[in-house]
Structures are given as C-alpha cells and as structure tokens.
Write a structure and sequence with these properties.
The protein is mainly alpha-helical and 122 residues long. The chain contains 7 helices and no strands.
Length: 122
C-alpha cells in the first residue's frame, strides 16, 4: 500500500516546484515523512526509501524559501528575541514549530548546487 503511495521522483519534484503555498509544500513534506517512518519501521533502506528522503528534503527546502519570503513587520526587531502575536511569521512558527521553521530556513540557505551534490552522494 505504501509503495503505491510513492510518486516518481520527477513527479514529486514538479509538485514541489508548482506548490504555491506553504501549506501545499508542508502536505508534501508530511506525506514523505509518513512514508519515511513506514520504511524505517519496516527496516527497508532501498532506492525508494532514498527517493522519499530526497522528496522530504526538497519539500523542506521549498518551505524554508517560502518562509524567508514572508514579509517582516517594519520597525520590529528581527533577531527572533521579541514576540509579536498575530504576525504571519509567528503564526507559521506556532503552526509548524520553531525548530522545524529554523531547520527549513537553513536548508533554503544552502546553495542549490551544493544541495544537488549532497543528494547525489547519498
């Protein structure tokens, strides 16, 4: 059943590229994470498992790119130490968690060529 849920890697890349909202990207990421968990429990580490990890990584990177594009409140501190409820960035952090949002933004900061090189090595 899970094997039939996995779309070809090229289709997944296209869906990630075409995703216009953070929610769309996170849905792709969440599905990949669920399939990853299945593979880990089943003790499978084959090519499809690697593709699932790549899909998850690409979706997290795209999420980070979209989060970085969220407008910041003008005149407010951007060092992350002040909290302003109701701002879009804080809503995102509350919804997905600070650590996930920070990790996704770090992935988005990695140059594309370096990420592709990493994916080819794994």
């Amino acid at each position: 059943m899970v094997e039939s849920s996995i779309v070809p890697i090229d289709t997944a890349k296209q869906r990630i590229d075409n995703a216009r909202t953070l929610d769309q990207v996170v849905k792709i990421r969440d599905k990949a994470a669920a399939i990853e968990a299945y593979y880990r429990r089943a003790g499978k580490a084959d090519e499809k498992f690697q593709q699932v990890l790549e899909i998850k990584l690409r979706a997290e990177r795209k999420a980070g790119e979209q989060i970085k594009a969220v407008p910041r409140e003008p005149g407010r501190r951007s060092d992350g130490t002040s909290y302003h409820p109701g701002t879009r960035l804080n809503e995102i952090k509350e919804m997905y968690g600070n650590s996930s949002v920070a990790r996704w933004q770090k992935l988005a900061a990695i140059p594309e060529a370096r990420l592709e090189e990493y994916i080819l090595k794994t």
